[in-house]
Write a structure and sequence with these properties.
Layout: E1 11-19, H1 25-35, E2 39-51, E3 54-60, H2 63-76, E4 79-84, H3 90-100, E5 107-109, H4 124-134, E6 139-140, H5 144-151, H6 158-170, E7 175-178, E8 187-194, E9 198-204, H7 214-227, H8 232-248, H9 264-270, H10 272-289, E10 302-305, E11 315-318, E12 322-325, E13 328-331, E14 335-337, H11 342-353, E15 359-364, H12 367-376, E16 380-383, H13 390-393, H14 399-408, E17 417-420, E18 429-434, H15 437-451
Parallel strand pairs: 1-2, 1-4, 4-5, 5-6, 16-17
Antiparallel strand pairs: 2-3, 7-8, 8-9, 10-11, 10-15, 11-14, 12-13, 15-18, 17-18
C-alpha cells in the first residue's frame, strides 16, 4: 500500500451566490482561490440560472440554510480569510454581519448592489444593513456605482475615489478599494484607501466586454492572498495584476462576450518549460544551418513569450545571445527566462496590438537583407530612430516600447519583419516575429538562404 503525502494549503471562504454560467459567484471564487494555491470553501446564499448573456432566474436560500453552512465550514476548517459576494436579502446581510463579528481572520466585503445595467439589486433596508457588515471588513471593494450607493459620492476621478474610500473607512472598514472599471478612460485606476495612505493601482484598459464576474474574481484573489499571509497592499496589487491578465486573456465560451479566465496564471506557468524548449529548438536549428549571414555585430537573440506573458520575466531567451565564431554560430550560454531585454521588450509591446505573437529574433540589416526581403515579398514594417522623441531617447530601455507602438499601433496586418535602420552608435537590425517557434525558424532560414 502506498503512503500518502498530504498537501497543506491555506483555506479561504466565499459567502456568495451560485452562477450556473461559471463566470461569477461561488464558481469564480473557488476557481480563483484554487489558482492562488488556496483551498476554497463556500456558503451559498442564492442559486442563479445564468450564462454569458445574462441572468434568467434567481432563488434565494432560506436564512436557516445559510446558517447551517456557516456552522459546517467553521466547525471543521481553519479559515485564513473570507469574502462576501451576492447576499441577496436584508436578512442574509444581517446574518453575515452578525457572524463577521466573530471572525478572527480577514474579511473582504464585495458589496454586490448594482447590476452592470445600473439597476439596484437590493432593497434600501439591505443597503443600510451593509453598513454593519462594512464595519467588520478588512477591506470593502465597491465599484463606482456601489460606492455611490454606500457613500452618496459619485466616483469620477482619483479625488472622488479617495473621498469615497475615506467615507467607507469612517463606517468602520480597515480599508476600501474603489474599483475603476466603471470609470471611463484608457487606464483603469483602482484606489486603495486606508487610514495611513492612499495607493493607486493602474492597468491599461482591455478592449473587451468579457468582464462579467470581474468583481467576484478580484475580491476572491485578494482573499486568497490574505489567506496566504500577504499584507493588504501586496494582496491588492497582486490581485489587480491577476484580474487584468484574466480579462485580457478571457475564456471564449458561450454565446455572449465570454468569461474571465480564472486559471490564466496557472496555464501561463504551465507553459514555461514548453516555451523555453521551443526557443532551444530554434537555436539548435540556427546552429545546424549556420545562419552567420544574418547575425548582427550585437549578436542575435531568440525570444519566446509564454501564451499570456506580460513581463520580461515571462519570456525565454539565450543568455548572452548567439554570436558568430570561426566555425559558424554558437549560443554563448543556455536559455533562461528574463535573459533578453531588448528583443523581449519589443515583443511584449508588439503583443499589445497583436497578442497572438509569441516569438521574435533580431537579425542583421543592410542593403542585401533589404533586397532579400523585397524578393520574398513579405509584409515588412519599419521605424526611423530619427523620429524618436527626446524623452524616449533619454529614458533607459524605452526605445523598444516606442518602436513597437510606432510600427504596429495603427497596423492591422501582422508583419513578418520589422526594420530598424539604426542611428549613430546604433546598429541597423531586422526583427522577425511569428506566432509560433516553427514559423520563426523557417522564416529565418528562408531569409538566410536567400542571402546566400
Amino acid at each position: 500500500m502506498r503512503r500518502s503525502l498530504p498537501d497543506e494549503r491555506p483555506v479561504g471562504l466565499t459567502i456568495a451566490g451560485s452562477d450556473s454560467g461559471g463566470g461569477a459567484g461561488v464558481q469564480a471564487d473557488l476557481a480563483t482561490m484554487a489558482a492562488h494555491g488556496v483551498y476554497g470553501t463556500s456558503v451559498v446564499t442564492a442559486v442563479t440560472a445564468q450564462h454569458t448573456r445574462g441572468v434568467e432566474r434567481s432563488f434565494v436560500l432560506p436564512v436557516e440554510e445559510v446558517e447551517v453552512q456557516f456552522e459546517a465550514v467553521r466547525d471543521d476548517f481553519a479559515i485564513g480569510a473570507a469574502k462576501t459576494g451576492m447576499l441577496a436579502t436584508t436578512e442574509i446581510v444581517e446574518t453575515v454581519a452578525d457572524r463577521a463579528g466573530e471572525f478572527a481572520f480577514p474579511l473582504v466585503v464585495d458589496p454586490v448592489m448594482v447590476a452592470t445595467s445600473g439597476d439596484r439589486l437590493l432593497e434600501p433596508a439591505a443597503e443600510r444593513a451593509y453598513e454593519e457588515l462594512i464595519a467588520e471588513a478588512t477591506v470593502v471593494t465597491p465599484n463606482a456605482d456601489e460606492a455611490a450607493v454606500l457613500t452618496g459620492i459619485d466616483v469620477e476621478d482619483g479625488a472622488s475615489a479617495r473621498e469615497a474610500g475615506e467615507r467607507l473607512c469612517e463606517l468602520g472598514s480597515d480599508a476600501a478599494l474603489i474599483k475603476g472599471g466603471h470609470v471611463p478612460g484608457e487606464t483603469v485606476r483602482d484606489v486603495l484607501v486606508t487610514d495611513e495612505r492612499t495607493v493607486t493601482f493602474e492597468h491599461p484598459r482591455v478592449d473587451t466586454d468579457a468582464t462579467h464576474g470581474s468583481g467576484c474574481t478580484l475580491a476572491a484573489a485578494i482573499t486568497a492572498r490574505l489567506a496566504r499571509g500577504d499584507d493588504l497592499e501586496t494582496a491588492v496589487g497582486l490581485a489587480t495584476d491577476f484580474l487584468a491578465r484574466a480579462i485580457r486573456y478571457h475564456y471564449d465560451v458561450g454565446q455572449g462576450p465570454g468569461a474571465v479566465n480564472h486559471a490564466v496564471e496557472l496555464r501561463n506557468d504551465a507553459a514555461r518549460e514548453r516555451t523555453a524548449e521551443a526557443v532551444r529548438t530554434v537555436v539548435d536549428r540556427f546552429v545546424a544551418a549556420d545562419v552567420s549571414p544574418l547575425i548582427p555585430e550585437v549578436g542575435t537573440n531568440v525570444v519566446g513569450a509564454t501564451p499570456y506573458a506580460e513581463t520580461v520575466a515571462e519570456t525565454a531567451a539565450v543568455e548572452g545571445r548567439i554570436t558568430r565564431t570561426l566555425s559558424g554560430v554558437k549560443p554563448n550560454r543556455g536559455v533562461r527566462f528574463g535573459a533578453s531585454s531588448h528583443v523581449a521588450r519589443f515583443l511584449l509591446v508588439a503583443r499589445e496590438f497583436h497578442p497572438e505573437l509569441r516569438f521574435a529574433a533580431n537579425c542583421r540589416f543592410d542593403a542585401d537583407v533589404e533586397d532579400a526581403l523585397e524578393d520574398l515579398d513579405w509584409s515588412v514594417a519599419e521605424y526611423d530612430r530619427a523620429a524618436e522623441p527626446d524623452d524616449v531617447t533619454e529614458t533607459e530601455g524605452s526605445t523598444m516600447e516606442w518602436a513597437a507602438r510606432r510600427t504596429l499601433g495603427d497596423r492591422e496586418e501582422l508583419p513578418v519583419a520589422v526594420i530598424d535602420r539604426g542611428d549613430v552608435g546604433k546598429e541597423a537590425t531586422t526583427k522577425l516575429v511569428a506566432t509560433d517557434a516553427e514559423t520563426l525558424a523557417e522564416r529565418t532560414l528562408v531569409l538566410c538562404d536567400r542571402l546566400e
